[in-house]
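ok so dumb question maybe but i'm new to this and my supervisor (M.) told me to 'just get the structure for Molybdopterin-dependent oxidoreductase' and walked off. so i did the thing. is this what she meant?? sequence i used:
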Amino acid sequence: MNKREFLGAALVAGALPGIAEAASAQAGPVLLTISGTIRRPNRGPLDPALDQMMAKQKLAFTQAHALDFAALARLPSRTIRPTLEYDGKVHALRGPQLAEVLALAGAPGGMDTRIILRAVDGYAVAITLRQAQAWGMMVATHLDGQPMALGGLGPLWAVYDADRIPEFATQPLAARFGACPWALYHIEVQG
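this is what came out, is it supposed to look like this??
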């Protein structure tokens, strides 16, 4: 067996997870960038020329963790079925827990850790990890069994099952998802 065959076999077997993760990070376009207080960066600083949207939204970081769809799909996922404000119907949303996504980047696990969830249109919400966990917040990648498209609610949506959280379930439908930016593309961790 030559070196190339050995490395290929090791990757398939999962013997070199760090290399496998780095290789897969380049498999598809980056959908989510996590910056701030993280311990596992996999990309360098914001480049104003190439990171145009982030630069226009006045973001700045010296390192970050970038995730593509495949990296998110490798995390354990769950399904929730909230009634959505857009059509008043129950829909199935699937994706990994927000806390697990943050852990992948090496974000601190303290309950008072503040996280800012930012959508492509600049809408941003600041919550604590305590709130994210209490609400069961997830990063949805699928709506009714289909990957979410950019231009709709996706490709990523930070969301919770508002129907099952008393503080949201009693609110009018249009007011339940204010802490849930759709078209999520950046998370800033303030540890």
